[in-house]
Amino acid sequence: MNLAGWVERNGRRLPDRPALAVGERVHADWARFAASAASVAAGLRVELGCSPGDRVAVLMDNRPEYLEALFAVWHAGLVAVPVNARLHRDEIAYILEASGTSVVVTDAGHADDAESLVGTVSSLSAVVVAPGERWARLLGSAPIPVTERGPSDPAWLFFTSGTTGRPKAATLTNRNLLMMALSYFADIDPVSPGDSILHAAPLSHGSGMYGLPHIARGAVSITPESGGDGAEVAALLSRWSGLSFFAAPTMVRRLSSDPALAGGALGDAGLANLKTIIYGGAPMYLADLEEAIEVFGPRLAQIYGQGETPMTITALPSSDHADRDHPRWRERLQSVGFARTDVEVRVVDDDDNELPTGEVGEVVVRGDVVMIGYWGQPEATAETLRGGWLHTGDVGSFDADGYLTLRDRSKDLIISGGMNIYPREVEEALLRHASVGAVAVVGRQDEEWGESVVAFIVVTPGAPSPTVEELDRLCLDHIARYKRPKDYRFVEALPTNNYGKVVKRELRDQLRSG
Ligand code: AMP
Questions:
Q1: What topology is assigned to 414-513 in CATH?
Q2: How far is ligand 1, taken at its centre, from the CA of residue 406, in Å?
Q3: Is the domain defined by 1-13+33-149 classed in CATH 3.30.470.20?
Q4: CA–CA gap between residue 21 and residue 197 (Å, rounded)
Q5: Do the two domains 1-13+33-149 and 414-513 of this chain adopt the same fold?
Q6: 392 in ligand 1 pocket by Cβ < 6 Å?
Q7: Where are the domains of the chain?
Q8: Which of 60, 177, 454, 464 is most enclosed, with most CB atoms within 10 A?
């Protein structure tokens, strides 16, 4: 079982239909997409010496070559390691090392970073820049058939940052990704060849995941030419039909207030080609959601998932968004919907006992979409998958109708602009400063970004106080730009509990009360 079979089949069945596009322009039809996957796969195996099961990273901004590379990797029986293109070089190095990646397929914008890591990352032997000379050579290789893979074989190593500060890779198998795709059809939308998906969010994350059901069914995958702003979305809606896209709540908010779309700017005719906006990944404020429904009509669907159970725990379908007459319409809009078709979802107490309706506990999930474990991390795997259930670290409760509402995150994850930031990574960067004695990083509610990063700093006794410039520089030198604190607070001491652990809740409360 190999997901690359989807592209191969579409290449035969829909050869002349568009498969990949950049903005309004077709980049490849299905025949060409299938041919490129088969040839690049041959190049990876023969020219670059990869064997089935080897890891190949894809480090690129959204572009059609991203999907060509991803499916070539699978076609060759290799395991894809999609890397967030906005990460710092050191973070990329860690991911490549931890996954034992041997080849990186990248683009011109990331080529220097990737090439500088050959010789530094022990497993890394080659870098392919697409488009580029070596990529062209791989495209010219004699095609090979799709490599046999089993349902339990790893296909995608999905790196999420761990609470320990070190990123962990959820090992997603062919079966996991197939279940994710099938439950998209069951719970979100059916998809057919006349449809399209716009990749306005990073392909290394949710957008790439939801690209899969679209590729399976022969829809067009579109990467935007600009950043996917309102004017571009409006233009694409006049070019492509049945258009869906995945967006973090911040992006939905930005689009619904964009002059090109807001206030009925497009009219019913202009929106006729818009099928579904799938939002999720972070909580969405009710006021923003009501505004988005006003602008886009009942074309919004919410999903709640995580890398460990890709995009699939619960969903709030578009029909619930449209059901204004329901007495609990607003309540439901604030929930994350009900359990997806392919999973069991429970709320449990600290001893993993199922809690009754209405009681708040940890959300746990079981099903064929749940990862087989963290790559190379048996202890973290055993802890997270204990008792056969994925422990999400999210806290919530079910109502009597089976709608789940998330209350808090037990992990201290900060979600800013749809991007995950684990405080520990920022703390580690700041602790490099000789004058920083202790530090705690938390999220503060932010109208524009959902949350913004705030660092509480205790200066080492007797040391000079660090400047904001020095702290910013340390962050820029060691972690991705978007993780840098927006605010530094210098304090005498951090609040701690009996075990000496910092109580971040108190810091968040402090920020909330101003
Ligand atoms: P990731 O593994 O990077 O996709 O992050 C997953 C985390 O994002 C989840 O564990 C939740 O804490 C949060 N999340 C995902 N979807 C939603 C949603 N619809 N509403 C609120 N939080 C969400």
A1: GMP Synthetase; Chain A, domain 3 (3.30.300)
A2: 10
A3: no
A4: 10
A5: no
A6: yes
A7: 1-13+33-149, 414-513
A8: 60
Nearest CA to 430 out of 451, 413, 455, 465 is that of 455
124 lines ligand 1 (CB under 6 A): no
Determine if ligand 1 sits within 6 Å of the CB of residue 232: no
Q: Is 384 in the pocket of ligand 1 (CB under 6 A)?
A: no
Instruction: Confirm or reject: Cβ of 162 under 6 Å from ligand 1.
Output: no
CA of 308 to the centre of ligand 1 (A): 11
Give the nearest ligand 1 atom to 158 CA: 2
| Dist. CA 411 → ligand 1 center (Å) | 11
Which ligand 1 atom is nearest residue 284's CA? 20
**What three-state secondary structure class fits 322?**
helix
Sequence-separated (6 or more) residues with CB below 8 Å from residue 88: 478, 479, 480
* Alpha-carbon span 197 to 28, nearest angstrom: 15
Q: Check the CA dihedral 240-244-250-255 and report its sign.
A: positive
Question: What confidence tens digit (pLDDT) does each residue in 312-330 have?
Answer: 999 999 999 999 999 999 9
Q: Between β-strands 79-82 and 55-59, what pairing exists: parallel, antiparallel or unpaired?
A: parallel
Q: Output DSSP code: residue 296.
A: H
In SS3 terms, 226-262 reads as CCCCHHHHHHHHHHCCCEEEEECHHHHHHHHCCCCCH
pLDDT, one tens digit per residue, over 67-122 is 999 999 999 999 999 999 989 999 999 999 999 999 999 999 999 999 999 999 99
